[in-house]
Amino acid sequence: MESSRMAFLGWVLAFLSGPSTGYPNGKVKEACSSMMPLHGHVPQKFPKHTAEVNVTQFKPGEHVKVTLSGPTFEGFFLQARDAENLEGAAIGSFVLADKKRSQLLTCGHVKNSAVSHTSKAKKTQVDAYWIAPQNSPKRIQFLVTVVEKYSIFWVKIPGPVISQPNTPILTTTVAANVTLPTSLTQVFNASECGTNKFCVRNPWSCDPKAEDCFFLSFRHDHPDSVMVEMSGPSEGYIAFALSDDQWMGGGDDAYLCISEDHHIDIKTASLVGRTYPELDSEDSLEEKSWRMADGLIQCSFRRKINLPAFQGRVNLDASYYIFLADGDVNEGGAVQKHDRQPLITDGKQNITGPPKDIGGSRSPFLIKIHGALMFVAWMTTVSIGAIVARFFKPVWSHSLLFGEEIWFQVHRGLMMMTVLLTSTSFVLPFLYRGGWSKEAGIHPYLGCTVMALAVFQPLMAGFRPPPQAPRRQGKGGEKVELPEW
Description:
Layout: H1 2-16, E1 50-53, E2 63-73, E3 75-82, E4 93-96, E5 102-107, E6 110-117, E7 123-131, E8 139-149, E9 152-163, E10 198-202, E11 214-222, E12 225-233, E13 237-243, E14 252-260, E15 263-271, E16 278-279, E17 285-293, E18 296-304, E19 321-329, E20 335-338, E21 343-344, E22 357-358, H2 365-391, E23 400-401, E24 404-405, H3 406-433, H4 443-462
Parallel strand pairs: 10-22
Antiparallel strand pairs: 1-2, 2-7, 3-6, 3-8, 4-7, 5-6, 8-9, 10-11, 11-12, 12-18, 13-14, 13-19, 14-15, 15-16, 17-18, 19-20, 19-21, 23-24
Helix pairs in contact: 2-3, 3-4
């Protein structure tokens, strides 16, 4: 009996001390290589937290500020590794910015080469300073594991990549873990719009660091190239295009960030007519990077200003209308028609010129006027005109205006205004499109029908016999007086 009790007690102790035990005090040296918390759970796939740095280049001996931020979290584990060998050992050492919330750990034989939490206290931001060693590799990438709570955590979230001066540009961002999305090297923000970056925002107050909105920026930070950042809420794709006119097609130069199987493909394409874009097989972009979380797609890349060897790519030192669109992709990853009218800048813009901070419209000005005039005509003037003829005829039956009864003059004036507004509105889409639009569906046919009826109605009134004419009779041979023009 005594032996059975001892066996049971040993089983309980073994269960409680199993590998699922966490590390609320941050002493996680056992995870130096894998950066995996021993919580007995599967890591999450889509990171919510980001690491930022205050520089893009470093020299041996310099201090680099690293900031981890995001929704409330309990634990974290931060390292720096060779960007071209992310499975290697931790590199460099850290200095703490807040000793109450963070502590230094020794991974491998490198002292102070990692930073972790000191307790489960809630936090939204942690800072630390990384010191570059004398034998630093050319490129360094920061990796971080974040624990939101015991069963929810993310492992090896890829952070920024920084490099030593005169290091050749990488054509792609190296992923820290193939099961996780590749991270952007920097978090997007709108603080430099109009000063160091050319920005297109929708709404105009959009800040991609704080909200899910549409954001596009161009940073001319190199004589031969431009850094592009694009962000927007979408489950399928976000895209922008450069065009010589205000409608898609005609060989417009397009750039798409496409979501497929928890991965973002950054592609170029030429838009011809209203057909689906055919993605280019050759890659003309550099430094491609992306992030996808909670229905938000963000991607960045570098493009040379002149690309004579690539068919369909325009020179970026000219002025273009800028389109910004989003939409869905099918199960095979093919891009579908955008969900709504693309955002279009009001005029042509030179993205390599002086930085600007602008917005745009998803409805061109002429189309807005078209809709407004049709609304006024068919919801206001024609309705009031019909009400006057129906209900005010006996009220104003003996009141005259310019030799005619007032109700009739008001009714006729409103109906003539309806025809005038409809005619003006009818012409505007043709001016905008430069002719008939075959891709606009049934709307143009309905518009033509409405225009024809609007013109046909006063023509019928013109041929109507006067009230005293014997041929103007109602049912049963009785003469009736109807509104006339």
